[in-house]
Design brief:
mainly alpha, 0% strand, elongated
Length: 74
């Protein structure tokens, strides 16, 4: 079992001065899960309705929503 785990000195802890510290929080991981599910639903819709205007519009809308959900000010 221990052979699959990294050595203890290889496990990195987030630096409090790092600008990406928020990416290690539970709240951010939950938001990332929401974004993943959003993209899965959008992809399924794109597969069901393979019309270029629909796919392009849905892709842009999903990208906007993803950035809005993961925005650090929210």
């Amino acid at each position: 079992m221990h052979s699959f785990l990294p050595a203890e000195e290889e496990i990195s802890l987030p630096d409090p001065n790092d600008s990406h510290t928020r990416r290690y929080t539970r709240a951010y991981r939950v938001k990332r899960g929401w974004v993943k599910n959003l993209w899965i639903v959008a992809t399924l819709l794109m597969i069901c309705f393979p019309l270029l205007p629909f796919v392009a519009a849905l892709g842009l809308l999903t990208s906007f929503l993803s950035f809005a959900i993961l925005d650090e000010t929210a």
